[in-house]
Amino acid sequence: MGSVATAVARAAACPPAYALPDPKRPRLSAIVSFSGATVTGSEHLVFTPDLPVSEVVLRLWAAAPRSARAGGGIDIATTKVDGRAVPSRRSSATVLRIPARVAAGRSVTVDVAFTLRLPTGINDRFGHRGTTAWFGSGLPLLAWERGRGWALEPATSAFAEASTSEAMELTSLTVRRARGLSIIATGVQVADDGTTARFRARSVRDVAVAVGRLRVAHAAAGDVPIVVGVAPGLADDPTATANALARAMRVHAARFGQFPFERLAVAVLPDIGGGIEYPAAILLGKGQTRDATASHEVAHEWWYGLIGDDQARDPWLDESFATYAEALDRGTGAAYERMVIPAGGRGRTGAPMTFWESRQSIYFRSVYIQGAVALLRARRAAGAAAFDDALRCHVRRNAHRITTPADLRLSLQALPAAIRVLTAAGALR
Ligand SMILES: [Zn+2]
């Protein structure tokens, strides 16, 4: 049977549950120590490529334009392959190349020691203010896409992502901080002696950490615990925030499937406007439970966290879907359908971040809004029940993977009316 026939046969049956994570997925352990605006860290990766490689590529998102403009960055101290020191080279600010010849299916270990410099006062995933410090995508990120290779797309200067990474087993994340500071981090906390805490997670594609004199509250959505930490100086009530997040988790779980991670950890932080999604973690600005942002970020736990995408190549695959989920949850769809899509973005829902780099002022309306509206209209065209069923099966089929528009098209193949709407919006090609 050819690959297309195999794929069609696979798409025809709706799996009974989420696909399991790849047993050969990368394994990551890391240690980070917070001190003021500096984080010193090391990471140990076990990587089993499914294609032969001559190098390992790690993306250094701390050196992306937004952070760098405000003084943020990352210095690489040492790089090792299979325990031996190997000189690495930065072919651009965010691309670290480590020579390593590895056959497909063989494992290699990579060790990297680094220092992060956290900027102050910018709306970004890196920041530091007073005793509060945070990073997302701060660990040098294995930029592998199974079946495809290294994800080398340029960074974006927009409030957006251009990163791509497969789901990894976070075998151990050790976080050190001054006594008296709380930690919000990806995964389940398995130890804490007051200065050193350890977390782990079964299947996450990136990591976020915040420390500070946080006000902390707990809640649960079903049997999934939620922890919220609010930074000093912000008026947000941690308990009310945790409850608002739990509500959104229940709504999205009913639509797409069970919450995909062991826990949701959320830090409410200064200088962030809106929210920034990570698998099992969210960095949130102040006051975001008053509008649809919290629901949007929680929806990303499925659309990006569980169902990954190349965020540089196909940003709509997570942003349009999170906005669509938020619209169904919060009833904002009618308002979105009335919004005017700028001429420069009309019919271009599926364009990559390189297209939006010089058009940042129309990115939100052209991708978030246009894409969400197309999904709402596709749902009406196909029939809500059939469309919801098809998306639920899509999520199960593609759990813990990086998807493409072709994967979505395959999941919607029995709903040609939906495919027509998404094609007209330039989402599907
Ligand atoms: Zn989003």
Please outline the major beta sheet: 8 strands, mixed
Number of strands: 25
Mean pLDDT: 96
Q: Strand fraction band?
A: 25-35%
Oligomer: single chain
CATH architecture of the largest domain: Sandwich
Could you say what the CATH topology of the largest domain is called?
A: Immunoglobulin-like
Helix fraction, binned, reads 25-40%
Class by alpha and beta content: alpha+beta
Written description of the protein model:
- This protein has eleven helices and 25 strands.
- With 429 residues, it is of the alpha+beta class.
- The chain has three domains: 181 residues, Immunoglobulin-like (Sandwich); 88 residues, Zincin-like; 115 residues, Neutral Protease Domain 2 (Neutral Protease, domain 2, Orthogonal Bundle).
- The strands form six sheets. Strands 5-4-8-2-1-14-17-16 form an eight-stranded mixed β-sheet, with no helix packed on it.
- Strand 12 and strand 13 form a beta hairpin.
- The radius of gyration is 21 Å and the shape is globular.
- It starts with a helix and ends in a 5-residue tail after the last helix.
- The model has no long low-confidence stretch (mean pLDDT 96).
- Zinc ion binds next to helix 5.
